[in-house]
Amino acid sequence: MSATVLIVEDEKSISTLLKYNLEKEGYTIIISQNGEDGIEQVKKNLPDLVILDWMLPDLSGIAVCDLIKREPRLKSIPVIMLTAKSEETDKIRGFETGADDYVTKPFSTKELVLRVQALLKRAKPSLIEDIVVFKDLKIDRLSRRVYRGDNQIKLGPTEYNLLNFFIKNPSRVYSREQLLNQVWGNAIYVETRTVDVHIRRLRKAINLEGKVDLIRTVRSAGYALDVQ
Ligand code: CA
Hints:
By secondary structure, the chain is α/β, with parallel strands linked by helices. The protein contains nine helices and eleven strands. The two termini are 29 Å apart.
């Protein structure tokens, strides 16, 4: 499971517990402690799912959810809202703002992890399936093998990670900075032009003779897994 989950929650005991349990399942976790920063993190990291607390010190969870769901680039990101027990009406308003699911506090972490899994599976099967396909390109995640049509393709680890990341959201354009954050993680000494080098290698490897180019370069924006 290579999904990134953003937790927006000011109660450290809760975010730490969630982080621990979700990391155990293989998720990458980003934590934010208030609404403003939460929105920043969504824009910067484009997480695969957001766990959003209802009561935050600055903006309300609804306002944050509303902002995510209004922005075309972000609105497909599933949001799970955490609400307090008595907030039955809030629950309904949560749905009106477009939250995809809600969990009432106090909750069982096990249940929340299952909800995360279910929501990701529904929203983006390409995130968690063992075999993912884009056009005539296929990744078998269990064996880490890549095929274009019937031909197996050999990729270096970085090119594999890049492709495995792109295929989660085909056609979505990622900037070099976003790719660095997502694929290289916290490698702060890597320069953005390194991305270009690995994109070039990836392109060369997957674009077999006679096949269409599956990497789209978007001038001054970045790259996408897409046909030109
Ligand atoms: Ca709170």
